[in-house]
């Protein structure tokens, strides 16, 4: 029965996606025809306006010439009639009219007329239309659009983080060469997807995720040398059960974002370590190879802006809060300085990471290793395996604590303003 239901569900998925694809194709080509029709109409109007303008511009001199000739002919005809009348009158009247006729005739240049342009000099309008555009458009239309049985890229994994979800995707079409990827997400209660990432990476952490809320994620790709995006992947639903990290509010010298996950050092008068509001607990992870459950802790910092560095600056984690300390370069803490130096229980390691710059991401991955005893049997030493990564480099070491620890605080300290750090 289970297999039958699964088969019915798969058939329903095929029918639904086929129906959606038909609707998308019909709507797209309908919009395309409407747009092309408007563009052709606009181009026709433009060309007709050019014809009208050339016609008016070239006809005006000929119209002016014709008017001037007609005016000269009419003037000559009037003068001839006046001469005829003068001849027919009496002697005194005839002399007066002949004198007036002679005076007018002397001011009229009957043999001076404007030159009419030669026929070869008169503009002759025509339209130049390249019929090859039809073949070009035809070729583009025949190649426009594709139908695929599945999108070339799919979401591979969703990993919950405090206040975020890491989304990983991969190509499922070996013949498709991806140039860029585009990731979108939305709350399941929303009808609108938002762009959160466009780039060449195949992994991205989506922040500002509310805990215990379902989100949908989808990704598409752009082929090498192409402008259009591929079809979207099948949407995947993910959520995070982990409470977002928060800095302690009200600490002098630092201001926090509305979600309290970003801290800005804004005052150089005060000093001290800004700690997390609450401890972050280890989570269980089963190691398939070793066939055992491991307790793990992971934390990421992203430096948004930088200020003047100082050798006492620190970004890291600790087993407990200690008031009165101006840095995490102390016992029961591990940290990285802004110059890249790594400190374990207050001692600087030989290995060093690159200096922290704007946009740097510092990752702390911690897992339990062993629980041993001291030589005098007065207590236990708790060992943690720590990996600190920054700018594509990492250091790995064992961190000894005085007692068993199921949670850690995160913290930072900067001695000059301008440093802004996001924790997730």
TrEMBL record:
Residue ranges of domain Fibronectin type-III in the record: 151-244
UniProt keywords, alphabetically: Coiled coil, Cytoplasm, Receptor
Taxonomic superkingdom: Eukaryota
UniProt signal peptide: none
Main location: cytoplasm
Localization terms from the record: Cytoplasm
GO CC annotation terms, alphabetical: cytoplasm
UniProt KW Transport keyword: no
Entries under InterPro entries matching the protein: FN3_dom, FN3_sf, Ig-like_fold
Its biological purpose: May play a role in the negative regulation of cell cycle progression.
Family: Belongs to the cytokine receptor-like factor 3 family.
Annotated protein name in UniProt: Cytokine receptor-like factor 3
High-level lineage: Eukaryota, Metazoa, Chordata, Craniata, Vertebrata
